[in-house]
Each structure stands twice: as structure tokens, then as C-alpha cells.
């Protein structure tokens, strides 16, 4: 195949090839280009339109986003799909192989959060928040807990389900009807003081609105914790 021949030269993608047979080095050749992992992250919960990805990554230019998506398509990590009517929009979505990168992202999240240099005050996208919760939930604490959770982050809505094996999350269109618990805020960052800082909604300035049985809400929040900082 032509792609195989070109990837051997290192010219097809970005010209930064290591000449190293380590599979980790090859993985960095595939997804190590600037912005590539963040584009993959934004597709991890489902297909999205070009404009939606662009809105989530406003610093990323349309030209660079186009280049990254086309490279990922050439590699078989991303594919295009057409949403059915009445939407009838083209979206980009991860292939089955591409979705296999979630454990890689989760391991990177857990590892990097241990750095004292991590700055939680930087912007956070709604998808990043949902993936962090899938990553940082303590499965050992779930026990027999089963519930549906609605997350409303600005104009984006997600449905979460807690079961013994963790938290599953998917986009919920116009919003989730009749969840056991609902969390609503204008930005993803508004969730952090409550879920990871362990402040009450009031202590966090009431930027996160919570509905549901208070005991159930607290039990859900207690499932999440940040890893210890390196050297602590």
C-alpha cells in the first residue's frame, strides 16, 4: 500500500520519525504531533462535527485541525460518518482502533496529575471533564451503587451510568430526562472544586447546581479522588 511505503520514509505524516523499533516510539510517531491527542480526546465520547471540535479547541486553527483530521483518517484512527436525518451532518469519529486509545489517555491523566506543576485553573472542555471522571472514579467504592447521572455543562449534555464496573458516559442531545442526580454548571471547571476539591456547592460559590437526594449525591461525589502528588 502507498501509505506503508510513505510511512517508512517518515515523510507522509510530519517528518518527525525516531528510527527506533520500540513500539512506544512508533506510537509517538502516530499520535505525537501537536494537537493530535487533544483532537482524539474530543472524539472519545462519540462523533462530532468539524465546527464542534473547533469550538472546543479555539486556539487550534481550522487549517491545522483539517491537517490533523486528515492525517488521522489516513492512519485509520479517525473516519468520517454521516448522521441520519433530520440532522444530516457529517461528523468525524474514532474507529474501533482509535477508541482503544482511551486507556492510554487515562494512564497519561493519572500520571500527569501527580505533577505539582499541573494547573487546574486552565480551561477544561466538557469532554475532558467527562473523561476525567471515567478515569478517576474509584471502582472499589462503588459496591452495589447503580444510578443514572445527568451532566449539563453549558450547552452540552451528557448521560452517565454508574455500575459496579465504573462510569459510562455518552452525549445526551438536548438533555437527560429523569436522572437520579443532575449536575449543571456553565463550565466544566465549575465541577472541579466539588468533585476533586471536596468543597460543598456553597463553598465553591454555588456555580455547580445539584439536584437529587443529598445522601446519594454525596455518595456519588465521594467516588472521585485525585492521585497523590509525586514525592508525597
Automatic annotation (TrEMBL):
Keywords annotated in UniProt: DNA-binding, Transcription, Transcription regulation
DNA-binding recorded as keyword: yes
TM helices/strands, residue ranges: none
Stored Gene3D superfamilies: Winged helix-like DNA-binding domain superfamily/Winged helix DNA-binding domain
SUPFAM superfamilies with a match to the protein in the record: SCP-like, Winged helix' DNA-binding domain
PROSITE patterns registered for this protein in UniProt: HTH_HXLR
Pfam families given in the database record: HxlR, SCP2
Domain HTH hxlR-type positions: 22-120
Stated name of the protein: Winged helix-turn-helix transcriptional regulator
Species annotation: Novosphingobium beihaiensis
